[in-house]
Amino acid sequence: MQEEINLGITRDEALQLMKEYLKPGNLQKHSLATEAIMRRLAQKMGEDEDLWGIAGLLHDLDYEDTKDDMPRHTLRTEEILKGKGICNEVIEAIKGHNADNLGYERERTIDHALTCAECITGMIVATTLVYPDKKISSVKPKSIIKRMKQKEFARSVNRDFIRECEKIGITLEEFAELSLKAMQEIGNELGL
Ligand SMILES: [Fe+2]
Question: What is the predicted pLDDT for the residue at 103?
Fold first, then answer.
């Protein structure tokens, strides 16, 4: 059996914290979407669902404060979470998704997972919005892959980061399908 990790925070507390630091709107939705994908990925990989989910929910906690200073992104979150006694695994995973700006390479499974999960949310939202009914329930996984291959579509979404799913043994097709399902489940909360 997998060893239980004491995260130092419950899901409800993490949700409150996220809402305290991020204004209602796209960043809150992005955080919820990332959490949903991370939970599904954890299930698939036999990993700790709460650990992966909470890392997803809190990964951009400092974004409003650090968006113009990416080398500080996630380090501010580290300070906040350390001050609340939240476990290192959550903090390290969050930093891992900004490793490029922090000057190291991602190695751990959860780091790659968080990176591809948070990135694909942007592609899924953009794909949904070009569907005639703009409903996430109408979106097909194939459309996400198709749009990903169009360089000019949602240009700011980093395709290489999405492809990090392959580093944890998940094909792009599987990953798109899993992520879409995760976001469809919370479509109402995402306003999609
Ligand atoms: Fe993010």
Answer: 96
